[in-house]
Write a structure and sequence with these properties.
Layout (H helix, E strand, L loop, with lengths): L6 H9 L2 E6 L7 E2 L5 E2 L1 H13 L7 E6 L4 H6 L5 E5 L6 E8 L3 E7 L3 H16 L2 H10 L9
Parallel strand pairs: 1-4, 1-5
Antiparallel strand pairs: 2-3, 5-7, 6-7
Length: 150
C-alpha cells in the first residue's frame, strides 16, 4: 500500500510496528489469554489495519491494554498510534467509527494528523468491502450474541 503524507503512518512504517491501545474494561471485544495472546474483534480489526499498512499482522502489532483513566492520554501523548473502542471527548483527538453495537465503537487518533484519519477510513471501508469486517464479527461477536454493523 502506498502511504500518503501522514506523519503517523510514516513513523509506523519506519518503526515497523503499529502501537494499538485497547480497552482493558471491555472483554467482549478484546481478551488476553494465559499465553499472552490478544484475541477478539478489536484485535482482528487492528491486525487488519496493520496488514493494510504493510506490516505483518502477527508480529508487527503491539497491543497495550489500557484502563479507562489512561485512554485519552495514551493517544494524545503518542504512547499508542490508534485506540480501539475509545471515545474522543477532547479537541486534540478524532474519532473514526468502525462498528455499531449497542454503542458506537471508534478508532481514536490524534486530530492533528487528518491524513491518518482519512487513510484509516479508507482501510475500514476496504475491510467492509472485502468481507474482513464481517468475518471478524462472525468469529468474535456473533458467538457472544452481540449484534453489530459497520
Amino acid at each position: 500500500m502506498e502511504l500518503g503524507s501522514s506523519p503517523t503512518l510514516i513513523a509506523i512504517k519506519q518503526r515497523k510496528r503499529l502501537l494499538v491501545g485497547v480497552r482493558a474494561d471491555q472483554p467482549k471485544f478484546v481478551t488476553r489469554d494465559p499465553a499472552g495472546e490478544y484475541r477478539g474483534f478489536d484485535v482482528d480489526i487492528a491486525r487488519d489495519i496493520a496488514r493494510r499498512i504493510g506490516l505483518d499482522p502477527n508480529t508487527q502489532v503491539q497491543f497495550r491494554r489500557l484502563p479507562p483513566t489512561l485512554l485519552r492520554d495514551a493517544v494524545a501523548a503518542g504512547n499508542v498510534d490508534v485506540l480501539l473502542g475509545g471515545t474522543a471527548d477532547v479537541p486534540q483527538l478524532a474519532e473514526i467509527p468502525y462498528a455499531v453495537t449497542d454503542t458506537e465503537r471508534n478508532l481514536v487518533v490524534k486530530a492533528d494528523d487528518p491524513e491518518l484519519a482519512e487513510e484509516l477510513r479508507g482501510m475500514l471501508r476496504a475491510a467492509i468491502a472485502d468481507g474482513t469486517w464481517q468475518r471478524a464479527h462472525d468469529q468474535n461477536l456473533a458467538p457472544q450474541g452481540i449484534s453489530a454493523r459497520p
